[in-house]
Design goal:
Layout (H helix, E strand, L loop, with lengths): L10 H16 L4 H16 L16 H5 L9 H17 L4
Helix pairs in contact: 1-2
C-alpha cells in the first residue's frame, strides 16, 4: 500500500477526517495542512486504518475529542476554586442546589 493511501480506512474514519479538516479550514489553516492534521487526529484516536467487518479491530475511545481543546487543568487552583464558588452561587440562586 503506497504512502498516503486511504483504502484501509473505514467510511466512518473518512467522514471523521473530513469533519476535522473542515474545522481546521474554518479557523484559517491551509487546505493541505488541515488535511494532514485531520488524518493525524484520526490515527491518534483509532490507531490507524481499519478494515470493516465483524470482530475486526477495537472500539475507538476518541481521546482527542474528549478533551475538547482544553489543557489537563485549566487555570490555577484559585481560579478553579472561584469558578466552583460562582457556579454554586448561581445554582443556589436559581434553586437548583
Amino acid at each position: 500500500m503506497p504512502q498516503g493511501d486511504k483504502s484501509s480506512y473505514t467510511a466512518k474514519q473518512k467522514r471523521k477526517a473530513e469533519h476535522i479538516e473542515e474545522g481546521y479550514e474554518k479557523r484559517g489553516t491551509p487546505k493541505k495542512e488541515a488535511e494532514r492534521r485531520a488524518w493525524a487526529t484520526v490515527n491518534k484516536d483509532d490507531g490507524g486504518g481499519k478494515k470493516s467487518g465483524s470482530g475486526r479491530g477495537r472500539k475507538s475511545d476518541h481521546p482527542a475529542s474528549s478533551r475538547g481543546g482544553r489543557a489537563h487543568k485549566s487555570g490555577s487552583a484559585e481560579q478553579r476554586s472561584a469558578a466552583a464558588r460562582k457556579g454554586w452561587e448561581t445554582r443556589r440562586r436559581n434553586g437548583n442546589a
